[in-house]
Amino acid sequence: MDGPGAYNPRTVEEVFRDFKGRRSGMIKALTSDVQEFYRLCDPDKENLCLYGHPNENWEVNLPAEEVPPELPEPVLGINFARDGMAEKDWLSLVAVHSDAWLLSVAFFFGARFGFDKADRKRLFNMVNDLPTIFEVVAGTSKKQSKDKSSVSNNSSNRSKSNSKRGSEPRPPKFTKPEHKEEEDEEGEGVEEEDDDEQGETQCGACGESYATDEFWICCDLCENWFHGKCVKITPARAEHIKQYKCPSCSNKRARC
Predict the structure, then answer these.
(1) Three-class SS of residue 99?
(2) pTM above 0.85, yes or no
(3) What subcellular compartments does it reside in (predicted)?
């Protein structure tokens, strides 16, 4: 509910700035301003929604009357559930719906102004770098930051032979001795080609390319690399795995 003449971001950067402003406002409502937010969500009133605005303010109000609305609308009736559950659970529920609304607004702008595949992916990656509202409200975002920092420090202190569970995978096919000999023989041209090839490392599960800010793990049997999230392995769990076998290799051994 941004009102007439609402600001319409047109570039990826503008949409992301709009996303961050709305997100900040909603986080305020559910954390520092939570007493006022709780008071405004009176169950005796009609269907109420929590809105975040690009200027980092928030508002509890009735849904837009126009049909269809100018922007996607947040979930209705957050006030009705307020007294029917524990306050912490209620705030978490509102936070989850708020995350869903923020994404819908951001990608509504993306569709409206013709973002292509690369723009949509860039926008999602920018959004995904921020903790969700639910993670902030539940307090898990700080824990995740500590875990990432710990894993990063541990990875940097390991030798190459012990870094298969680190966050910067380098498949064996890129580090075999014969490739080094080729570089010595053919000079800088080959070096550049190897750099390009190295950047195209792909997850054996989803096929997405390698990114330095993601946790990866290598299968000790087939030597393919995987996103930790694709094979459901966390950095903490990886610390206790002596020999990792990907789902495909595990299934093959089971059939044998």
Answers:
(1) helix
(2) no
(3) Nucleus
